[in-house]
Amino acid sequence: MIMEKLLGKNPSQLKEIALAAGLPGFTGNQLAQWMYGKRVRTLGEMTNLPKAGRERLSGSYEVGVARPLGVAASSDGTKKYLFPVNGNPDNAVEAVMIPDGDRKTLCVSSQAGCKMGCKFCMTGRQGFHGNLSAADILSQLFAIDEAAELTNVVFMGMGEPLDNWEEVKKVIEVLTAPWGYGWSPKRITLSTIGVIPSLKRFLDECKCHLAVSLHDPFPDERLALMPAQKVFPLADVIALLRQYDFSGQRRVSFEYTMFAGHNDTPRHADALLRLLKGLECRVNLIRFHRIPDFPYGTSSQETMEAFRDRLARGGITATIRASRGEDILAACGLLAGLHNHE
Q: Fewest CB within a 10 Å sphere: which of 60, 123, 139, 240?
Protein backbone atom coordinates (compact mmCIF):
# COMPACT_ATOMS: atom_id res chain seq x y z
CA MET A 1 0.00 0.00 0.00
CA ILE A 2 1.33 3.43 -0.96
CA MET A 3 1.17 5.80 1.98
CA GLU A 4 0.57 9.53 1.55
CA LYS A 5 3.36 11.70 2.98
CA LEU A 6 2.69 14.44 5.51
CA LEU A 7 5.97 16.29 4.91
CA GLY A 8 5.42 19.46 2.89
CA LYS A 9 1.84 20.00 4.02
CA ASN A 10 0.86 23.21 5.85
CA PRO A 11 -1.24 23.38 9.05
CA SER A 12 -4.49 23.91 7.11
CA GLN A 13 -3.92 20.79 5.05
CA LEU A 14 -2.89 18.84 8.15
CA LYS A 15 -6.07 20.03 9.91
CA GLU A 16 -8.21 18.55 7.13
CA ILE A 17 -6.34 15.26 7.43
CA ALA A 18 -6.80 15.24 11.21
CA LEU A 19 -10.53 15.98 10.98
CA ALA A 20 -11.00 13.19 8.43
CA ALA A 21 -9.34 10.82 10.90
CA GLY A 22 -11.72 11.87 13.67
CA LEU A 23 -9.18 14.02 15.48
CA PRO A 24 -9.80 17.63 16.61
CA GLY A 25 -8.83 20.43 14.24
CA PHE A 26 -5.99 21.68 16.42
CA THR A 27 -4.21 18.40 15.71
CA GLY A 28 -3.10 19.99 12.43
CA ASN A 29 -0.94 22.46 14.35
CA GLN A 30 0.37 19.65 16.54
CA LEU A 31 1.38 17.62 13.49
CA ALA A 32 3.22 20.64 12.05
CA GLN A 33 5.01 21.24 15.37
CA TRP A 34 6.12 17.63 15.64
CA MET A 35 7.39 17.48 12.06
CA TYR A 36 8.88 20.92 11.50
CA GLY A 37 9.67 22.00 15.05
CA LYS A 38 10.83 18.73 16.58
CA ARG A 39 11.76 17.01 13.30
CA VAL A 40 10.29 13.64 14.23
CA ARG A 41 10.31 10.98 11.55
CA THR A 42 7.36 8.81 12.57
CA LEU A 43 3.77 9.28 13.75
CA GLY A 44 4.54 7.04 16.70
CA GLU A 45 6.84 9.71 18.15
CA MET A 46 3.99 12.25 18.36
CA THR A 47 3.17 11.35 21.94
CA ASN A 48 0.58 14.07 22.69
CA LEU A 49 -1.72 12.66 20.00
CA PRO A 50 -4.13 9.93 21.16
CA LYS A 51 -2.80 6.47 20.38
CA ALA A 52 -5.99 5.53 18.55
CA GLY A 53 -5.74 8.68 16.44
CA ARG A 54 -2.12 7.96 15.56
CA GLU A 55 -3.11 4.46 14.52
CA ARG A 56 -5.88 5.78 12.28
CA LEU A 57 -3.49 8.24 10.67
CA SER A 58 -0.79 5.61 10.22
CA GLY A 59 -3.21 3.51 8.20
CA SER A 60 -3.01 6.00 5.33
CA TYR A 61 -0.18 8.43 6.12
CA GLU A 62 3.49 8.52 7.00
CA VAL A 63 5.77 11.46 7.80
CA GLY A 64 7.72 10.64 4.64
CA VAL A 65 11.37 10.79 5.67
CA ALA A 66 13.45 8.47 3.47
CA ARG A 67 16.71 7.18 4.90
CA PRO A 68 19.74 7.76 2.67
CA LEU A 69 20.95 4.80 0.67
CA GLY A 70 24.54 5.82 1.33
CA VAL A 71 26.91 8.65 2.12
CA ALA A 72 30.32 9.66 0.80
CA ALA A 73 32.66 11.88 2.82
CA SER A 74 35.21 14.24 1.27
CA SER A 75 38.62 15.09 2.66
CA ASP A 76 37.41 18.71 3.00
CA GLY A 77 34.42 17.78 5.21
CA THR A 78 31.81 17.85 2.46
CA LYS A 79 29.36 14.94 2.55
CA LYS A 80 27.22 13.61 -0.28
CA TYR A 81 24.05 11.69 0.52
CA LEU A 82 22.18 9.40 -1.88
CA PHE A 83 18.37 9.20 -1.53
CA PRO A 84 15.80 6.92 -3.17
CA VAL A 85 12.84 8.54 -4.93
CA ASN A 86 9.47 7.07 -3.92
CA GLY A 87 11.29 4.18 -2.32
CA ASN A 88 12.96 3.22 -5.60
CA PRO A 89 16.75 2.86 -5.16
CA ASP A 90 17.20 2.72 -8.94
CA ASN A 91 15.83 6.27 -9.23
CA ALA A 92 18.06 8.14 -6.81
CA VAL A 93 19.06 11.75 -6.17
CA GLU A 94 21.90 13.35 -4.26
CA ALA A 95 22.17 16.08 -1.64
CA VAL A 96 25.46 17.67 -0.61
CA MET A 97 26.24 19.03 2.86
CA ILE A 98 28.95 21.72 2.78
CA PRO A 99 30.50 22.86 6.08
CA ASP A 100 32.11 26.29 6.29
CA GLY A 101 32.99 27.49 9.79
CA ASP A 102 29.74 27.99 11.69
CA ARG A 103 27.68 27.43 8.53
CA LYS A 104 26.38 24.14 7.26
CA THR A 105 24.70 24.42 3.87
CA LEU A 106 22.70 21.68 2.20
CA CYS A 107 22.58 21.60 -1.58
CA VAL A 108 19.27 19.86 -2.34
CA SER A 109 17.92 18.22 -5.48
CA SER A 110 14.49 19.13 -6.84
CA GLN A 111 14.24 16.65 -9.74
CA ALA A 112 15.57 13.22 -10.62
CA GLY A 113 17.69 14.12 -13.61
CA CYS A 114 16.97 17.30 -15.56
CA LYS A 115 15.30 18.41 -18.81
CA MET A 116 17.65 21.32 -19.48
CA GLY A 117 20.44 19.23 -21.02
CA CYS A 118 23.42 21.49 -20.25
CA LYS A 119 26.36 19.85 -22.02
CA PHE A 120 28.84 20.29 -19.17
CA CYS A 121 26.60 18.92 -16.39
CA MET A 122 26.41 15.24 -15.44
CA THR A 123 22.84 15.65 -14.19
CA GLY A 124 21.69 17.22 -17.45
CA ARG A 125 23.34 14.49 -19.49
CA GLN A 126 21.40 11.69 -17.77
CA GLY A 127 18.00 12.96 -18.94
CA PHE A 128 14.85 13.58 -16.93
CA HIS A 129 13.34 10.96 -14.62
CA GLY A 130 10.67 12.94 -12.76
CA ASN A 131 9.88 15.79 -10.40
CA LEU A 132 10.44 15.37 -6.69
CA SER A 133 7.56 16.05 -4.34
CA ALA A 134 7.90 18.56 -1.51
CA ALA A 135 8.22 15.55 0.80
CA ASP A 136 11.07 14.12 -1.31
CA ILE A 137 12.92 17.44 -1.12
CA LEU A 138 12.31 18.03 2.59
CA SER A 139 13.37 14.46 3.33
CA GLN A 140 16.86 15.43 2.23
CA LEU A 141 16.96 18.06 5.01
CA PHE A 142 15.44 15.74 7.62
CA ALA A 143 17.45 12.57 7.04
CA ILE A 144 21.07 13.73 7.01
CA ASP A 145 23.29 13.45 10.09
CA GLU A 146 23.62 17.25 10.23
CA ALA A 147 19.86 17.94 10.08
CA ALA A 148 19.78 19.87 13.36
CA GLU A 149 22.84 21.94 12.45
CA LEU A 150 21.86 23.22 9.01
CA THR A 151 22.02 26.99 8.58
CA ASN A 152 21.38 27.38 4.85
CA VAL A 153 19.77 25.61 1.90
CA VAL A 154 20.61 26.02 -1.77
CA PHE A 155 18.46 24.58 -4.57
CA MET A 156 21.53 23.78 -6.66
CA GLY A 157 21.48 19.99 -6.69
CA MET A 158 20.03 17.76 -9.36
CA GLY A 159 17.29 19.30 -11.50
CA GLU A 160 15.97 22.73 -12.45
CA PRO A 161 14.02 24.06 -9.43
CA LEU A 162 11.82 26.38 -11.49
CA ASP A 163 10.75 23.45 -13.66
CA ASN A 164 9.20 22.07 -10.46
CA TRP A 165 8.15 25.37 -8.89
CA GLU A 166 4.91 24.27 -7.23
CA GLU A 167 6.69 21.66 -5.11
CA VAL A 168 9.76 23.82 -4.49
CA LYS A 169 7.48 26.65 -3.35
CA LYS A 170 5.94 24.33 -0.74
CA VAL A 171 9.41 23.55 0.58
CA ILE A 172 10.32 27.24 0.79
CA GLU A 173 7.05 27.88 2.66
CA VAL A 174 7.95 25.19 5.22
CA LEU A 175 11.45 26.64 5.63
CA THR A 176 10.31 30.25 6.09
CA ALA A 177 6.87 30.03 7.77
CA PRO A 178 6.54 30.60 11.55
CA TRP A 179 4.87 27.19 11.83
CA GLY A 180 7.77 25.59 9.92
CA TYR A 181 11.48 26.20 10.34
CA GLY A 182 10.97 29.96 10.73
CA TRP A 183 14.07 30.76 8.68
CA SER A 184 14.78 34.10 7.05
CA PRO A 185 14.51 33.88 3.23
CA LYS A 186 18.12 35.11 3.22
CA ARG A 187 19.19 31.62 4.25
CA ILE A 188 17.85 30.13 1.01
CA THR A 189 19.20 30.43 -2.54
CA LEU A 190 17.57 29.06 -5.69
CA SER A 191 19.64 28.42 -8.81
CA THR A 192 18.07 28.41 -12.28
CA ILE A 193 18.97 28.56 -15.96
CA GLY A 194 16.14 31.11 -16.25
CA VAL A 195 12.78 29.37 -16.78
CA ILE A 196 11.04 32.69 -17.39
CA PRO A 197 7.38 32.02 -16.47
CA SER A 198 8.34 30.35 -13.19
CA LEU A 199 11.13 32.86 -12.60
CA LYS A 200 8.59 35.66 -12.56
CA ARG A 201 6.50 33.72 -10.07
CA PHE A 202 9.54 33.10 -7.88
CA LEU A 203 10.42 36.80 -7.89
CA ASP A 204 6.83 37.78 -7.08
CA GLU A 205 6.07 35.09 -4.51
CA CYS A 206 9.15 34.83 -2.31
CA LYS A 207 12.20 36.80 -1.16
CA CYS A 208 14.90 34.15 -1.34
CA HIS A 209 18.22 34.80 -3.04
CA LEU A 210 18.55 33.96 -6.74
CA ALA A 211 21.46 32.49 -8.68
CA VAL A 212 21.23 32.44 -12.49
CA SER A 213 23.32 29.99 -14.52
CA LEU A 214 24.86 32.24 -17.17
CA HIS A 215 28.17 30.65 -18.31
CA ASP A 216 28.53 32.64 -21.55
CA PRO A 217 27.35 36.15 -22.49
CA PHE A 218 27.11 35.46 -26.22
CA PRO A 219 23.76 33.88 -27.27
CA ASP A 220 25.16 31.50 -29.88
CA GLU A 221 27.94 30.27 -27.63
CA ARG A 222 25.57 29.86 -24.67
CA LEU A 223 23.16 27.90 -26.88
CA ALA A 224 25.96 25.45 -27.72
CA LEU A 225 26.41 24.82 -24.00
CA MET A 226 22.82 25.20 -22.81
CA PRO A 227 19.97 24.14 -25.15
CA ALA A 228 17.47 26.00 -22.93
CA GLN A 229 18.92 29.25 -24.30
CA LYS A 230 16.70 28.70 -27.36
CA VAL A 231 13.51 28.70 -25.28
CA PHE A 232 14.58 31.10 -22.53
CA PRO A 233 17.08 33.54 -24.05
CA LEU A 234 19.48 35.11 -21.59
CA ALA A 235 18.56 38.60 -22.81
CA ASP A 236 14.93 37.98 -21.83
CA VAL A 237 16.00 36.65 -18.42
CA ILE A 238 18.10 39.78 -17.76
CA ALA A 239 15.27 42.03 -18.97
CA LEU A 240 12.94 40.38 -16.44
CA LEU A 241 15.45 40.76 -13.62
CA ARG A 242 15.81 44.47 -14.34
CA GLN A 243 12.17 44.90 -13.31
CA TYR A 244 13.02 43.94 -9.71
CA ASP A 245 14.99 45.57 -6.91
CA PHE A 246 18.10 43.71 -5.73
CA SER A 247 19.60 46.57 -3.76
CA GLY A 248 18.07 45.40 -0.47
CA GLN A 249 18.10 42.04 1.28
CA ARG A 250 17.41 39.84 -1.72
CA ARG A 251 20.45 39.23 -3.92
CA VAL A 252 20.95 38.00 -7.44
CA SER A 253 24.16 36.37 -8.53
CA PHE A 254 25.28 34.82 -11.80
CA GLU A 255 27.03 31.46 -12.00
CA TYR A 256 29.82 31.38 -14.56
CA THR A 257 31.65 28.09 -15.13
CA MET A 258 34.92 28.81 -16.90
CA PHE A 259 36.17 26.73 -19.85
CA ALA A 260 39.75 27.20 -21.01
CA GLY A 261 39.93 29.23 -24.22
CA HIS A 262 36.17 29.25 -24.74
CA ASN A 263 34.48 31.68 -22.33
CA ASP A 264 37.38 32.97 -20.23
CA THR A 265 38.77 35.67 -22.51
CA PRO A 266 38.78 39.47 -22.10
CA ARG A 267 36.18 39.58 -24.89
CA HIS A 268 33.83 37.53 -22.73
CA ALA A 269 34.50 39.61 -19.64
CA ASP A 270 33.72 42.81 -21.54
CA ALA A 271 30.51 41.32 -22.98
CA LEU A 272 29.49 40.28 -19.47
CA LEU A 273 30.05 43.83 -18.25
CA ARG A 274 27.83 45.20 -21.00
CA LEU A 275 25.13 42.60 -20.35
CA LEU A 276 24.95 43.24 -16.60
CA LYS A 277 25.60 46.97 -16.55
CA GLY A 278 23.43 48.75 -14.01
CA LEU A 279 22.11 45.54 -12.42
CA GLU A 280 22.92 45.12 -8.72
CA CYS A 281 24.56 41.69 -8.74
CA ARG A 282 27.66 39.60 -8.30
CA VAL A 283 29.29 36.98 -10.52
CA ASN A 284 30.51 33.67 -9.12
CA LEU A 285 33.33 32.22 -11.20
CA ILE A 286 33.35 28.42 -11.02
CA ARG A 287 36.21 26.12 -11.91
CA PHE A 288 35.06 23.53 -14.43
CA HIS A 289 35.29 19.92 -13.29
CA ARG A 290 36.12 17.67 -16.21
CA ILE A 291 33.51 15.10 -17.20
CA PRO A 292 33.67 12.28 -19.79
CA ASP A 293 33.04 13.04 -23.47
CA PHE A 294 33.10 16.82 -23.07
CA PRO A 295 35.91 18.53 -24.97
CA TYR A 296 36.50 21.69 -22.94
CA GLY A 297 39.23 22.01 -20.35
CA THR A 298 39.57 23.89 -17.07
CA SER A 299 40.70 27.53 -16.99
CA SER A 300 43.88 28.19 -15.07
CA GLN A 301 43.81 29.99 -11.73
CA GLU A 302 45.72 32.86 -13.34
CA THR A 303 43.12 33.20 -16.10
CA MET A 304 40.26 33.12 -13.60
CA GLU A 305 41.89 35.80 -11.46
CA ALA A 306 42.47 38.02 -14.51
CA PHE A 307 38.82 37.57 -15.53
CA ARG A 308 37.67 38.43 -12.00
CA ASP A 309 39.86 41.52 -11.88
CA ARG A 310 38.62 42.73 -15.28
CA LEU A 311 35.02 42.47 -14.07
CA ALA A 312 35.95 44.30 -10.87
CA ARG A 313 37.53 47.16 -12.82
CA GLY A 314 34.29 47.40 -14.77
CA GLY A 315 32.25 47.72 -11.59
CA ILE A 316 30.97 44.17 -11.05
CA THR A 317 31.86 42.22 -7.94
CA ALA A 318 33.18 38.79 -8.88
CA THR A 319 34.43 35.96 -6.72
CA ILE A 320 36.13 32.68 -7.50
CA ARG A 321 34.11 29.98 -5.79
CA ALA A 322 36.11 27.47 -3.83
CA SER A 323 35.60 23.95 -5.14
CA ARG A 324 34.24 21.55 -2.52
CA GLY A 325 33.84 17.79 -2.55
CA GLU A 326 35.45 17.15 -5.92
CA ASP A 327 37.04 13.92 -4.66
CA ILE A 328 33.57 12.43 -4.04
CA LEU A 329 32.00 13.86 -7.23
CA ALA A 330 30.02 16.38 -5.19
CA ALA A 331 31.26 19.56 -6.86
CA CYS A 332 29.31 21.71 -9.33
CA GLY A 333 28.04 19.76 -12.34
CA LEU A 334 29.03 16.32 -11.04
CA LEU A 335 25.84 15.08 -9.35
CA ALA A 336 24.41 12.07 -11.13
CA GLY A 337 22.60 9.95 -8.52
CA LEU A 338 25.14 7.15 -8.89
CA HIS A 339 25.62 4.43 -6.28
CA ASN A 340 29.23 5.31 -5.46
CA HIS A 341 28.44 5.84 -1.77
CA GLU A 342 29.48 3.57 1.08
A: 60
